Amino acid sequence: MELLTNRSKLVTNKQMTFAEKLYIPAILGGLRITIRHFFKKKVTVCYPEEKREHSKIFRGRHVLKRDDLGRENCTACGLCAIACPAEAITIVAEERKKGEEHLYREEKYAAEYNINMLRCIFCGLCEEACPKDAIYLTDRISLSNYERNQFLYTKEMLVEGSEGNERINIDARRTGIRDGAM
Ligand code: SF4
Ligand code: SF4
Predict the structure, then answer these.
(1) What range does the domain containing 121 cover?
(2) Position 98 in a domain
(3) pLDDT at 180 over 60
(4) Rounded CA gap, 150 and 146, in Å?
């Protein structure tokens, strides 16, 4: 019979030898591999005690940005939701009312903005689609949780604070995108 690949093995009903029945050669073979790896340089990182440095263009947890005056940049145009291949983003738009100019930069804003982080594949297409500099992926990792509903990130969880120390700095990511740095 012609084999499909050179890695396939024919299965036989061959009786095991006495040595094979003892399993000692197989156990010693396994131990040899374990010991060999024991002295090799570790590729794993003991997170969270040790943290690996992320690249400038690491795509982590999203942030909804504000402008220099602290107003939300997002105009609820929905382009990010359309661009999202995982259909993870849902938005409810509202018209800005008189007296809310200090809250929202545009005449329309996102009253609700949700990202289902269980669907998100961190592709960054929402960021690329946004014409208003409103959404960015950051170097913050998305936290693990035990409840599925905890992965529905609401606008309150996504939008950055308006105070100076609450702002999420995305300069490195912006520069990384521009330079194509890794
Ligand atoms: S990073 Fe990709 S998958 Fe995640 S919300 Fe943005 S477009 Fe959707
Ligand atoms: S984040 Fe950007 S693309 Fe998405 S709705 Fe807001 S302005 Fe539009």
Answers:
(1) 62-179
(2) yes
(3) no
(4) 8
